[in-house]
Amino acid sequence: MYGTPYLPLKIGAIIRNINYIKLITYSSQIKKYGISYNELIIDAETKDSYVVRQKSTGKYCIYYNDIDNNIVNSNRVRWNLAHELGHVILKHHEMVGVEKLYRDGLDDESYLYLENEANYFA
Known about the structure:
Low-confidence stretches: none
Radius of gyration: 14 Å
Distance between the termini: 19 Å
Largest sheet: 3 strands, mixed
């Protein structure tokens, strides 16, 4: 469905081929909103990545860090994208009825369950 299988998977290419998911970089958000990197991290509540589901359309946006060299120059970006894709494929947002999975938006047990499930997917 997403091309010839090979390892390592090109997770970004796979996500770009899914019509209901959009990939968005942290750098584009900084430019778009005229905010600093630190302001973005505070708002995002993570240095790595996160996914938001638009309830009205059912579409997703995966936001990921393309700025931090420790993340970009390692396999961390691939892991982050696979983890967020896991949340989408496993329908975590629909299950709990939220647009974004905030740490303090769910009880600890539910949050850890969803995070562990997305980690396993990744």
